[in-house]
Design goal:
Shape: globular
Distance between the termini: 55 Å
CATH superfamily of the largest domain: Aldehyde Dehydrogenase, Chain A, domain 1
CATH topology of the largest domain: Aldehyde Dehydrogenase, Chain A, domain 1
Number of strands: 16
Order of helices and strands: HHHHHEEEHEHEHEHEHEHEHEEHEHEEEE
Largest sheet: 7 strands, parallel
Number of domains: 2
Radius of gyration: 24 Å
Strand order of the largest sheet: 10-9-11-8-7-12-13
CATH class of the largest domain: Alpha Beta
Number of helices: 14
Strand content: 15-25%
Structural class: alpha/beta
Length: about 425
């Protein structure tokens, strides 16, 4: 298979050169055709996806994994809408910025260009196939996709639609290629294609990210693992905080920007925590509480607060370092903003962390000192998403500092070149 992977790499490199010079209009037409074909072919796509879901259930995959790989008409409609939105966004390729004319008359600018060939390795979610393909096409990048074995049938159907949209608009089909082989050896081979692939972007669990960092011969952008926090300080609007935390935890618990830990100031813990637990328990949330939080929840008779009698367990040694991806929430009481920020520094993955407060000075300190890709004031962590932040879609959420940080949309899939224009200038000695 190594020779086959080299051929995939060669084809991607050749396609990237063609796509890099494609017009914005032709790229947009391809995206709009893909949106139409995705909806018109929804019966075939959903049938393929149903086979994956059935196989996943038979294999004993957990509910969170099955939710991630499931498509339905509503999700397909959302994907098609995102495609049309990406088509409407400005094309970053060719954009000039940092323009200046130097004292000697040289005109200097930076100009955005595609990264080249992306290698994207991901698990579970077939929607990623379309989102990544769309962003790659719009930015003139070729992409080699390697999805999980649990979505193989879905991805075959989706990639066929993507390639149809490209060829229909005289763009190279090999700009989007899919490794149609579940063997894990293909991942190692992809990570070795440094002559053809410019960047590796893994989307999945910690083990996948670690494997890519340790074995790739190509630069890797990591992220997407979210142990996310919200801190309720002593001046927060507690009624509003209940709803923000509920949204962050309950709306879609299986994603990386879902809330994992609520930190509550001691001054409001006895008042707020029983309300929080009762409110979220109605949604099926269970809790892992540190000792002070547990004490604030236990009634005089030793029982958890009524009326929902939720499951509140003592937090274990690794619970605050766990990305739950389910209806589980960690609870901890802290004595100060400093303690809250110290906890976040020790346990956060640098994805999305926020403060709920009515004190501007607290908000400013939190924003200045919490070192996460997305930092929130009085808002749910669920907004760390390319679509929600106006990017149209995202290829990943980067939690590192170099090249890109946070949701990676169109501009994050470009680099730049210097363009220097003179009038027969010669550098003096």
């Amino acid at each position: 298979m190594l020779n086959d992977m080299i051929e995939i790499g060669r084809n991607a490199r050749a396609a990237s050169k063609q796509l890099a010079r494609a017009s914005t209009e032709s790229k947009n037409r391809a995206l709009l055709r893909l949106a139409d074909r995705l909806w018109d072919s929804r019966a075939d796509v959903l049938s393929a996806n149903a086979l994956d879901v059935s196989s996943a259930a038979s294999a004993g995959l957990d509910a969170a994994m099955i939710d991630r790989l499931t498509l339905d008409e509503s999700r397909l409609k959302g994907i098609a809408s995102d495609l049309r939105h990406v088509a409407d966004l400005p094309d970053p390729v060719g954009e000039a910025f940092d323009e200046a004319t130097l004292p000697d008359g040289l005109a200097v600018r930076k100009q955005r260009v595609p990264l080249g060939v992306l290698g994207v390795i991901y698990e579970s979610r077939p929607n990623v196939t379309v989102e990544v393909a769309a962003l790659a096409i719009k930015t003139g990048n070729a992409v080699i996709l390697r999805g999980g074995s649990e979505t193989l049938t879905s991805n075959r159907a989706l990639v066929a639609l993507v390639r149809d949209a490209l060829t229909h608009n005289n763009l190279p089909a090999d700009a989007v290629q899919f490794i149609d082989d579940p063997d894990r050896a293909r991942v190692a081979e992809l990570l070795a294609l440094r002559d053809y692939v410019d960047i590796i972007i893994p989307r999945g669990g910690a083990a996948l990210h670690q494997y890519c960092r340790e074995h790739s011969r190509i630069p890797v952008i990591t992220g997407g693992i979210g142990i996310c926090h919200l801190f309720v300080d002593d001046t927060a609007d507690l009624d509003a905080a209940l709803e923000v935390i509920r949204n962050a935890k309950v709306q879609r618990p299986t994603v990386c920007n879902a809330l994992d830990t609520a930190l509550v100031h001691r001054a409001v813990a006895a008042q707020f925590l029983p309300r929080l637990v009762a409110r979220l328990a109605a949604d099926g949330v269970t809790f892992r509480a540190a000792p002070a939080a547990l004490a604030a929840l236990v009634r005089a008779d030793g029982r958890a607060p009524q009326p929902h009698t939720p499951t509140v367990l003592p937090a274990g040694p690794s619970d605050f370092d766990t990305e739950w991806l389910s209806l589980v929430l960690g609870l901890k009481v802290v004595d100060s903003l400093d303690e809250a920020m110290s906890h976040i520094a020790a346990h956060s993955t640098g994805h999305s962390d926020g403060i709920l407060t009515r004190t501007d000075a607290h908000a400013r300190r939190f924003v200045a000192e919490v070192d996460s890709a997305a930092v929130y004031v009085n808002a749910s962590t669920r907004f760390t998403d390319g679509g929600q932040l106006g990017l149209g879609a995202e290829v990943a959420v980067s939690t590192q500092r170099l090249h890109a940080r946070g949701p990676m949309g169109l501009r994050e899939l470009t680099t730049y070149k210097w363009v220097i224009i003179g009038n027969n200038h010669i550098r003096p000695s």
